[in-house]
Structures are given as structure tokens and as C-alpha cells.
């Protein structure tokens, strides 16, 4: 069994409902092939923590590493990362990078993030993308990088509510509330078209800042309810069961894949999202709908509300089976030839 290091492994309280379990699920699933040397020792020093494991590591798995310029001591961490990426092969360390997004959702420190992104495309031994668009995007930045990129859909778990509930919510928007989600732009569009009272809308998630939530709250009314807290899994399951449509309004500029999208599929939701990245891929599977712009979105919403009672459970179940964490491990192990 090979020794591996995975980033990030946060010391954040896992009882927090907003905690992203992706890395934990990855460690658990890949545990049959790798010994993750840092799995029980969350880092408090970012990527600098890797120095403790340098001489006993065969593989390094990076997730969202391009965002380290935004972290504490971001410049120092960035310099260390770039040095490491350039010397890894001399230590026989293989770099596996999951490219979750196009560059970064956040616009701070873009110069450093572009450098990291480019060097990762050049130096990584294998790049995983959860959206086929990621291959095209990477190739547009560095010609030839597509040869080491593999597309594997984001793994999904079954979470469907067995108890049907009365659907009182037309549109549910959930997840972290941030600028790149496009929620403010969508609500402003509704007000500009005098459609702010047309749908029963419920928006819930942890806001990225007080300022952002204040801007978002200014667009609420008796038909648009906005909550600044992240629902736990049981409450989210109930909310999705009460909702006719789960809506994603993400900006197309940065999004490739979405954990919230895959969770919503796992909950058996009727979904509409932007025609980009993983949303486009899954639309081809016939289990979600996509939109091109807000005019198109209104048409898709109205059609979707008429069909909200229908759901292709067999197709959803088949997709979940084919894209389980177990299947993900098999695809990764084949790609890495382990």
C-alpha cells in the first residue's frame, strides 16, 4: 500500500453542518489503496504541514490548492507549493490534482492563482476533473495538458427521502451563499421583470459575509425567504422533499463541478442549473434541466413546475449506482494503474 498525503485536511469542526465531507469521503473510499499519513492529524499550517511527511510520501492528492494565496501566510504557502511542484519528481512523488473549478471562485490574488493553476497543469502527474468541460478549459490554458486529465463525475450518495411531503416551495436554493452563486443577480432579474411575487422561493445557506447577506436580504419579501444558516442533512432532506425545483444560479465564469448538485441528485431532487460544467454533463444523462440565461430560466422554471410531480427514479438510481464512491475508486485506481 502506497503512502499518500491529502490536501486540505482541515481542523474545522466536522459537526458544523456546513463542513464539506469530500476529502473525508475520499480518504475513506481510497483507503483500500493508500495509507493517508496525515488523515488523523489535521493541519494548522496549511500546505507547510507537508514538510513533516516529505520523505515518506509516494502520492500527494491536491483539492482546491489553487486557493492557498487567500489563506493565512498565503504568499509563503504559495512559494513553498511552487518549489515543491518543481522538485517532486526528484523525490519520486506523484502529484494528483482534482481540478474542481475554473481557476478560483474568488477574485483576490488572481495573479498567484493563475501561476499555481498553470504550474499544476504542467507538473501534475494526473489531473481529475468532475466536468468534461474541465478538459477543454485546461487545454485552452496549456496545450497538451488534456493528455493527463481524466473526467470522472463527482461521486454521489443515495439520500432520498422515503416519506413524501407536501410541496409548498417552488424554488429551493441551498448551499454556501457567495457572490459566485449568482443568487443576487437572479433575484434582481425577478424584480426587474416584476416577477418577485410569482414563485415561492426559499434560500438557505451560510453566507460568505455579513455584507453579502445584507445585500441578499434586501431582495427578500413574503414570497422570497432567505436564511443565513446551513441546514443539517435531515432538515435539507425535508426541504428538498417539500420543493418542486432545486435551483442553481451559479455564474458560468468559475464553476466546473458542484458538490451541492450531486447531493441534490442524491436527495432525488428535480434540478435546474446553468448550462455549464457538470450541469451540462448531467443534463445529457436526462436527470436535470439546464438554462442558458435568465429569460430561458423562467421558461424552464414554468415548465418544471408543471412537471414537478414526475421524477424518473430508475434513471436517478442508475446514475447514483454508476457514480458511487466505490465506482470512483475503481476509476481512479485504473487511471493510476494501481
Please, could you describe this protein's structure?
- With 338 residues, the chain is of the alpha/beta class.
- It has twelve helices and twelve strands.
- It has a six-stranded parallel β-sheet, with helices on both faces.
- Strand 5, helix 4 and strand 6 form a beta-alpha-beta unit.
Task: Kindly list the characteristics that best describe this protein.
six-stranded parallel β-sheet, alpha/beta, 12 helices, 338 residues, globular
Topology:
Layout: E1 2-7, H1 22-30, E2 34-36, E3 59-63, H2 74-87, E4 94-99, H3 110-123, E5 126-129, H4 133-141, E6 149-151, E7 169-174, H5 183-192, E8 201-204, H6 210-217, E9 224-227, H7 233-242, E10 243-247, H8 259-266, E11 271-274, H9 277-284, E12 289-291, H10 294-306, H11 313-322, H12 325-336
Parallel strand pairs: 1-2, 1-3, 3-4, 4-5, 5-6, 7-8, 7-10, 8-9, 10-11, 11-12
Helix pairs in contact: 1-12, 2-3
Q: Uncertain spans, ≥5 residues at pLDDT below 50?
A: none
Following the backbone from N to C, one meets helices and strands in this order, namely EHEEHEHEHEEHEHEHEHEHEHHH
Q: State the shape.
A: globular
Helix content range of the residues, please?
A: 25-40%
The mean pLDDT is 93
Give me the Rg, rounded. 20 Å
Content-based structural category:
alpha/beta
Let me know the largest β-sheet.
6 strands, parallel
Overall strand count: 12
So how many helices?
Answer: 12
C-alpha end-to-end distance: 9 Å
Q: Please list the strands of the largest sheet in the order they lie side by side.
A: 2-1-3-4-5-6
Strand content: 15-25%
